Amino acid sequence: APARIAVTGLAVMGSNLARNLARHGFRVAVHNRSSARTRALVEEHGHEGDFVPAETLEELVASLQTPRQIIIMVKAGAPTDAVIDDLVPLLEAGDMVIDGGNAHYADTRRREAALREAGLHFVGTGISGGEEGALNGPSIMPGGSAESYAHLGPVLEAISAKVDGVPCCVHVGPDGAGHFVKMVHNGIEYADMQLIAEAYDLLHRVGGQTPAQIAEVFRGWNSGDLESYLVEITAEVLGHTDPETGAALVDVIADEAEQKGTGRWTVQEALELGVPVTGIAEAVFARSLSGRVDQRTAVRAALGASEVTPAPDDSLVEDVRQALYASKVVAYAQGFDQMRAAGAEYGWDLDLGAMATIWRGGCIIRARFLDRIREAYDKDGDLASLLVDDYFRDAVANAEAAWRRVVVKAVAAGVPAPGFVSALAYYDGLRSERLPASLIQGLRDFFGAHTYRRTDRPGSFHTRWSGDRSQVDA
Ligand code: 6PG
User: Fold this and answer.
1) How far is Cα 53 from Cα 41, in angstroms, rounded to an integer?
2) Pocket test for ligand 1, best of 179, 180, 181, 189 (most atoms within 8 A of CB)
């Protein structure tokens, strides 16, 4: 019998996705550039389901029922284009190419248009959940046409994670919408991890606690509002001892965070869209700063390393918990703003409640409070910000005093907390009756005659700064 669907690219994500498909009863054709991997997969996991190994792309294509569905699981960028180029001549009108890598959404838009031109379907889909998720149920964010989803959706929904019986997979929107949403997911993942790292740093350096003690704190937090995969695994990592030295592993790991680029893309796109995603931006820059080892060394040598004297107090742990929660709400509010703005820009008509729904399980940022976000957008799809939803408004208001105390303590102690600090600045910025942007407009008008608007009547104005300083209509 022909295979139902195919996977090409059998590194860990691709293999696990193929196994997930097979385990769900789909006859799955598998292919890898070097066929040793294909053989290894079938030898090791052949008993899990129905695999059809293919040595070549031609064989892969020939093994499929029509219209064909082929999932590409290779590195984003040029390697993905190379596979598409090899594949397209082998396909027939109506066949579907699915890219499950972390592609840039603009590449996905370009590929979708090109394949549509050739009579083919192209679905760029975000897949989150790492190796574990790919195997046991990821969160899946497919873009592409509604027609594509009608054919592909049932398969993806079957292999996705489920929360309360609801699949963590929905048709996100046309062309690059799925990869855009996955990109923002990753950006939020960066912000979330940065905030967690700052919480750890404060408990460690201001609170004087050991990693093992902080692991216990996070374990406790994971049974409350902060319940999430990232908080859960923070307890695991902090509680782990390095077998070589007997020290906490976190004290042995080099403090230089790496990044593959999706966080940076999120910020670049946010800059284009004019959406302040300060939480994600601070997280990306904090990783960059950590990686500038030579500069860090030089500055420490010249200025001396900052000294932080632990100053634990009874409220620190609870205050940090509240600050983490409030800052996290801000980071998500910003990420959801960005998705809304992109939806408007590209005509995607994104259902933000549905995005929260499919992030409840399977993905890296899965968290209890995504249910609250889903409820918020289900109640009002046009929310001005997540921060104005009743639940989040009250939650952040309750956390506000603790949040401010934590920011003050971090600043006073000299522990960098860019995530907490900038999240609070954003919150205060949105709520300010007047912003000093008025002065910025005045300065722009002074040096460049860039004009300003007035609060009391319509129109654009310019002050003759270098003349008699009278105001003229611009
Ligand atoms: C996921 C992850 C996954 C990957 C990150 C890591 O959703 O499963 O986000 O896509 O692990 O891209 O990104 P960095 O290497 O940039 O931290």
Assistant:
1) 9
2) 189
d(CA 461, CA 435): 19
Residues 6+ apart with CB under 8 A from 238: 200, 211, 212, 214, 215, 218, 248, 250
Q: Is 171 helix (H, G, I), strand (E, B) or coil?
A: coil
Kindly tell me the sign of the dihedral angle through the C-alpha atoms of 77, 79, 85, 88. negative
Q: Which one of 102, 196, 265, 290 would you pick to mutate in the ligand 1 pocket, going by the greatest count of ligand atoms within 8 A of its CB?
A: 102
Residue type, 178: G
Instruction: Kindly name the residue from 157, 189, 269, 282 that is annotated as catalytic.
Output: 189
Asked if residue 228 has its Cβ within 6 Å of ligand 1, the reply is no
Active site (annotated) includes residue 189: yes
Residue 260 near ligand 1, beta carbon < 6 Å: yes
φ, ψ at 54 (rounded to 5°): -130, 135
Nearest atom, ligand 1, residue 257 CA = 17
d(CA 431, CA 132): 41
For residue 144, give the nearest of 80, 69, 57 by alpha carbon: 69
Q: What is the pLDDT of residues 95-122, one digit of tens each?
A: 999 999 999 999 999 999 999 999 999 9
**pLDDT, tens digit, 9 for 90 and up, residues 369-416:** 999 999 999 999 999 999 999 999 999 999 999 999 999 999 999 999
User: Quick one: DSSP state of residue 410?
Assistant: H
Shortest-distance Cα residue to atom 17 of ligand 1: 259
Of the listed 112, 182, 282, 409, which one is catalytic? Answer: 182
Q: Are 286 and 321 in contact (CB under 8 A)?
A: no
Ligand 1, atom 10, lies closest to the CA of 128
Confidence at residue 394, expressed as pLDDT on a 0 to 100 scale: 98
pLDDT digits (tens, 9 = 90+) for 316-366: 999 999 999 999 999 999 999 999 999 999 999 899 999 999 999 999 999
* Nearest-atom index, ligand 1, CA of 138: 8
Q: Please report how the helices 278-291 and 177-201 are oriented relative to each other, as an axis angle in degrees rounded to 10.
A: 60
Q: Of all helices (H) and strands (E), which one includes residue 142? A: strand 139-142
- The pTM is what? 0.97
